Amino acid sequence: MSQHPTQSDEQGAVDPNLPPDPSRRFWVASACTLGGVAGVATAVPFVGSFAPSEKAKAAGAPVEADISGLAEGQMMTVEWRGKPVWIVRRTKATLEDLPKHDAELADPQSDRPGYTPEWAKNEYRSRNPEYFVCIGICTHLGCSPTSHFQTGAQPGLPSDWPGGWLCPCHGSTFDLAGRVFANKPAPDNLEIPPYVFSADGTRITIGVDEDNKA
């Protein structure tokens, strides 16, 4: 993509030795958040949203999402610990295209600590390549990016846009593995929460993994 420098550009690279900055990871009720909700509504239909009870949310308990009705190319949102968690069922074309723009990303291998569990340090940043799960908060100032899954030229995006998210506040862009493009304000990839699939693959429990027990 012509607008982004390659990974070798020192200004666009992220130092993997820098510590994570949790202070950036909060969800603010701002114009960015409102823009994110509107953008998703127009670009990708919601299948479900904000399902857990107020009691469960307040306790920070694990949240279960039913993904049995999630079609290819769709995204659903649930709330966990007061944060929006996006679940996307990626298409086969998306999976094939992900490696093609690695050179344009700030941290293509998710080497920077604090945002990607060890089990998600792969090209897809997921347990199952077909499903991508992330916290929908920009790592710059805590806004909620808008989805732009359609590929190609669009307002504010390059002509060879591969699909992903755009943060309307300051222009950070992320691919469909939540990886930030180089030379953007956001310093990190979107955060991957702990989660596991059910045995039959129809549900995802967010808040539980090898290091986070229910």
From TrEMBL:
Cofactors (names):
[2Fe-2S] cluster
Segments forming domain Rieske: 100-204
Pfam families with a match to the protein in the record: Rieske
What reactions does this protein catalyze?
a quinol + 2 Fe(III)-[cytochrome c](out) = a quinone + 2 Fe(II)-[cytochrome c](out) + 2 H(+)(out)
What membrane topology was assigned to this protein in its record? Single-pass membrane protein
Q: Where are the membrane-spanning stretches? A: 26-47
InterPro entries per record: Rieske_2Fe-2S (IPR017941), Rieske_2Fe-2S_sf (IPR036922), Rieske_Fe-S_prot (IPR014349), Rieske_Fe-S_prot_C (IPR005805), TAT_signal (IPR006311), Ubiquinol_cyt_c_Rdtase_Fe-S-su (IPR006317)
The cofactor binding remark recorded in the entry reads: Binds 1 [2Fe-2S] cluster per subunit.
Give the PROSITE patterns listed for this entry: RIESKE, TAT
Query: Which parts of this chain are annotated as the region Disordered?
Result: 1-22
Q: What is its main location?
A: membrane
Task: Provide the top EC class.
Answer: translocase
Q: Which UniProt keywords apply?
A: 2Fe-2S, Disulfide bond, Electron transport, Iron, Iron-sulfur, Membrane, Metal-binding, Transmembrane, Transmembrane helix, Transport
Q: Carries keyword Electron transport?
A: yes
Cellular location(s):
Membrane
Q: Where is the composition biased (Polar residues)?
A: 1-10
The record makes one more remark, namely: The Rieske protein is a high potential 2Fe-2S protein.
Per UniProt, subunit arrangement is: The main subunits of complex b-c1 are: cytochrome b, cytochrome c1 and the Rieske protein.
In Swiss-Prot or TrEMBL terms, this protein is called Ubiquinol-cytochrome c reductase iron-sulfur subunit
List the taxonomic lineage. Answer: Bacteria, Pseudomonadati, Pseudomonadota, Betaproteobacteria, Burkholderiales
